[in-house]
Amino acid sequence: MNDSLSYLYDTPGPKARRRVLAGSAVSAVVIAAVIAGGLWQFAQHGQLNSQSWTPFSQWPIWDYMLNAYATGTLAAAGLTVAMSAPLGLLLVLLRLSPLTPIRKITAGYIEVARTIPVLLLVYVMMFALPHYGINPGTIWKLAIPLTVAHSALFAEIIRAGIVSLPRGQEEAGLAVGLPRRQVFTAILLPQALRAVSPSLVTQLVSLLKDTSLGYVLGFFELLQAGNVLSSYNHLLIQDYLVIALIYLVPNGLLSFLASWLKRRGDRRGIPAASASRAG
Amino acid sequence: MNALTPGGVLDAVGTTLLVFVLAGVGSIILGTLVTVARVSPIPLLRAAAFAFVQFFLNVPLLALLIIAVFALPDAGVIGPLLPTAIITLAVYEAAYVAEAVRSGVNTIAVGQLEAARALGLTQAQTLSLVVIPQALRAVVQPIANVMIALVMNTALLAAVGIVEITAATNVLNQQLAQPIPIYTGSGLVYMIIALAVGLAAGWVERKVAIKR
Fold first, then answer.
1. What's this model's pTM, rounded to 2 decimal places?
2. Which of A13, A109, A120, A259 pairs with B173 at a CA distance of 20 to 30 A?
3. Structural domain for A23, as ranges
4. With 50 as the cut, is the pLDDT of residue A279 above it?
5. Taking CA atoms, what residue in B is nearest to A112?
6. Nearest-CA distance from A223 to chain B in Å?
7. A177 in the same domain as A71
8. Vertex A206, ends B17 and A200: CA angle to 5°?
9. Whose CA is closest to A279, among A217, A185, A213, A186?
C-alpha cells in the first residue's frame, strides 16, 4: 500500500516524530468530528433507531439480497465474461492482424465501443431494438451492452500485454518454425495474460459494478433488490447502505487480489502492462 | 415526459458538459488531496485516504447516486438534484484520480527526494514543490482516461432524473420513433466529447512536459 513511502521521507527524528504525533491527533479529532456529525445527523432523523436496523438481524432479508447478488449480479457478470472472453480475444487477433485495413477497422471499433456509455446501449436494448422486433430477455438486455463495452476493454488490456513483451519472443517462436497461430497461443498469450492479470482483475471489479445498471432495466440484481426492498420496508438508507456493503466486500477482496498480483509481478520482474480505463 | 424542443436538446448537451466540467475539476482537486493524504507521514491520514479510495473503487456509481439522491434525504441530507449528482460524481471519480496520481508519485526518482532533503526542504515543501508537480505531469494520460470514463458516467445521471444527453435521447426517441438516427447521434456526441478530452490531454501533456 505504501511502497512509495520508504524513500519519500527521512527516518523521522524526535522533532519529526512529535510533528507526526500532533498531526495524528489533529486528524483523529477531525475524522472523529466528521463521523460524529454524520451519526448525529442520522440520529436526529431517527435513522439509528433500533427498529430501523432490527430487520437486518433476521436472516430472510440477507437471504433476499444475497440471492439477488447470486442470481442477478453474478449471473449477469458471468454471462458477460463468458461472451466477452472469446470476443475480446478475437478483437485482439484482429487488432494485431498483419492486414492494415483489418487492424484499423478493429482499432476504430474498439475506440467506439469503449467511449459509448453502457447505459445508452442499455436504452438501445430497451427502447430502440423492440421497435424492430428484437426483444431478448432482460438478462440479455444487460449482458449484451456490457459485453460490447467489456470485450473492447479486455481486448485493449490483453493487447497492451502482448505489445509489452520483448520482440524476441515472437521472433524466436517463428525462428524455431512454429506456425503464427501457435506463436500466439503458446508464447505470446500466456505471457501477456500473466503480465496483465492485475488489470484483468480490476476490470472484473468494474464489470461487477456495471451490472448495477440492471436497476434501470428492472433486472433483478442487487441494486434492483434494494429498490424492491425499500419500497416495501421504507428503510432506504439502511437497505442501500447494506447493499453498498455487499458490493464492497467481494469487490474489495478482488481489488486486494489485483494489488497482490501486481506486487508479485513486480517482484518477479514481469513488466506490468496496463491499458485499463477506470470507470 | 415533456416534449423536447431543439433548444431542449442543446440544453441536455449543455447539462452533460456542465456536469463533466464541474465534476472533472472537482475530482482532480479532491483526488490530488487524497493522494497527498495517502503519502503523508501521518498513518491515520494514510489509512483514511486508503479507505476512501477502496470504498469508491468498489461500490457502483449508480448505487452511490441512488443513496445520495433518494436515500440521504431520509436523514435530512437534501440538496438540489443537479449539485447533489455532480458532487457524488466528483467524489466517486476522485478515487480513480487518486489512484492515477499515486502511480505518478511512485515514478518519482529517489534522487529527487534526496535532493529535496539535501536542500533542507520540509516535508510539506517536498510534497508540494517536488513530488506532486512531477507526479501530476507523469499522469496526464491516466487522468485523461479517468476523465473519459467520467464523460461516460455522466450518462448515469439519467437514471436519477436529470435530463442530460442520455435522458434527452430517450425522450426524443419517444416523440419521433426514429431509434437508429437518434441513438447513433447521441453515441456520436459522447464520442466527440471523449475525443476532445483525449486531444486536450495530448496538448496538456506536451505543454507540461519537462524538457530534459
1. 0.92
2. A109
3. 5-44
4. yes
5. B191
6. 7
7. yes
8. 125
9. A213
Nine cell digits for residue B196: 476532445
What is the 3-class SS of chain B, one letter each residue? CCCCCHHHHHHHHHHHHHHHHHHHHHHHHHHHHHHHHHCCCCHHHHHHHHHHHHHHHHCCHHHHHHHHHHHHHHHCCCCCHHHHHHHHHHHHHHHHHHHHHHHHHCCCCHHHHHHHHHCCCCHHHHHHHHHHHHHHHHCHHHHHHHHHHHHHHHHHHHHHCCCCHHHHHHHHHHHHCCHHHHHHHHHHHHHHHHHHHHHHHHHHHHHHCCCC
Interface confidence (ipTM) of the complex: 0.91
Specify if B1 maps to a domain.
no
Same domain, A14 and A94: no
How many domains would you assign to chain A?
Answer: 2
Of the pLDDT bands very low, low, confident and very high (cuts 50, 70, 90), residue A271 is: low
Predicted pLDDT at A150: 96
| B14-27 mean pLDDT | 97
What value does the mean pLDDT of chain B take?
A: 93
Q: Give residue A270's pLDDT band: very low, low, confident or very high (50, 70, 90).
A: low
CB A118 within 8 A of CB A58: no
Q: Give the rounded percent of residues in chain B with a pLDDT score beyond 90.
A: 79
Cβ count near A267 (within 10 Å): 8
What's the domain count of chain B? 1
Nearest CA in chain A to B92: A279
Residue B5 lies in a domain: no
**What distance in Å separates residue B112's CA from the closest CA in chain A?**
10
Binary contact (B145, A277; C-beta < 8 A): yes
CA distance B100 to B138: 9
- Considering only CB atoms, A212 lies closest to which of B63, B154, B166, namely B63
pLDDT in tens, A6-21: 567 777 788 888 988 9
Same domain, A80 and A210: yes
Q: Which residue in A110, A214, A80, A126 sits closest to B194, CA to CA?
A: A110
Contact B75/A45, CB-based, under 8 Å? yes
